[in-house]
Amino acid sequence: MNSRLTYRGRFAPSPTGPLHAGSLVAALASWLDARAHGGQWLVRIEDVDTPRCVPGADQTILQQLAACGLHPDEPPVWQSQRGTLYQQALDPLVAVGLAYPCACSRKDIEQALAAQGSGKPRHGELVYPGTCRHGLHGKAGRAWRLRTDSASNPLQATANTTLAAPETIATGNTLLRWTDRRLGSQSQDVEREVGDFVLKRADGLWAYQLAVVVDDAAQGISDVVRGEDLADNTARQVVLQRALGLPTPRYLHTPLVLGLNGEKLSKQNGAQALDTATPQAALQALHHAARMLELPPVPASTSAGDCLAQWTEAWRSVQAP
């Protein structure tokens, strides 16, 4: 594969506030990876979770990226404008029985898990026990879920031309193995560790997993470079890609920036907005992100453009030999 012709990467922030130091690390890494491979870099605003979106944050993010010299090669897209694509992906899954309506509330799931003696949340999420797989029993469907059990076997979908096929399949038909470009060998039993996951929420909003899979395929994304906090989503996305017969990109998950409390820096725990008000401030932010990515130091007097050029060469020597 000639990566210089086929590489397409993306940065996909959620507009729940301005970029912070942690999100710039992911943005810079994805930009460098695209440039090091001679490819294209896109920006996608992931605003499907509209109640969490902050008005104007999308434009602030685009301005912050531009101030840092990170310019997309195509106009940005907004997920909130792409609902038709998501419905077109859900409909065939419903038609073949891979997606089904679910009437369960969080309380219902907690009670079902408690009855099984397995109510412990996984990373704050409840492993769905498959309550509605075989019917709603007179209840009204509130959400749509993807079947992940071995009976439905979405991992064996055949209309699938992968860009970088993960190593699969292992025991039980639902254990997925893949290789992350930074983290190395990864695996997850999606049915046991996650359960049937939501594609469309009870409030009518599209779920992140469906939106990101559909958009990555529609935009021809060959490589996903994003924060390590999103690595746990990869197996679900590969399962869904296979169920839809879509390509699987390569994945690289970047180091997380931690706050003073040792937790991941995020908007939810009070991360400060990235200061890009002046060229000097933007350059300082870039230097900090580069250190997190273990890129070689560049003299402070170097222009942002020259810094990015030097870091691209350094990235190419490691990630794009």
TrEMBL record:
What Enzyme Commission number(s) does the record list for this chain?
Answer: 6.1.1.-
List the ranges annotated as motif 'KMSKS' region. 264-268
Entry's PANTHER family? GLUTAMATE--TRNA LIGASE, GLUTAMYL-Q TRNA(ASP) SYNTHETASE
In which domain of life is the source organism classified?
Bacteria
Question: Which keywords appear in this protein's UniProt record, sorted alphabetically?
Answer: Aminoacyl-tRNA synthetase, ATP-binding, Ligase, Metal-binding, Nucleotide-binding, Protein biosynthesis, Zinc
Start and end residues of each Glutamyl/glutaminyl-tRNA synthetase class Ib catalytic domain: 8-116, 192-274
Q: Provide the residue positions that the database annotates as binding ATP.
A: K267
Short motif ('HIGH' region): ranges? 13-23
| UniProt family annotation | Belongs to the class-I aminoacyl-tRNA synthetase family. GluQ subfamily.
Sequence positions that bind L-glutamate: R10, F11, A12, P13, S14, E46, Y208, R226
In terms of InterPro entries, this protein maps to: Glu-Q_tRNA(Asp)_Synthase, Glu/Gln-tRNA-synth, Glu/Gln-tRNA-synth_Ib_cat-dom, GluQ/Sye, Rossmann-like_a/b/a_fold
Picking any one GO molecular function of the record gives: ligase activity
**Function, in words:** Catalyzes the tRNA-independent activation of glutamate in presence of ATP and the subsequent transfer of glutamate onto a tRNA(Asp). Glutamate is transferred on the 2-amino-5-(4,5-dihydroxy-2-cyclopenten-1-yl) moiety of the queuosine in the wobble position of the QUC anticodon.
Protein name, UniProt field: Glutamyl-Q tRNA(Asp) synthetase
Instruction: List residues binding Zn(2+).
Output: C102, C104, Y128, C132
Question: Does Metal-binding appear among the keywords?
Answer: yes
Q: Which cofactor does it need?
A: Zn(2+)
Cofactor: record remark: Binds 1 zinc ion per subunit.
Q: Which Pfam families match?
A: tRNA-synt_1c
Q: Please name the gene that encodes this protein.
A: gluQ
List the Gene3D superfamilies: HUPs
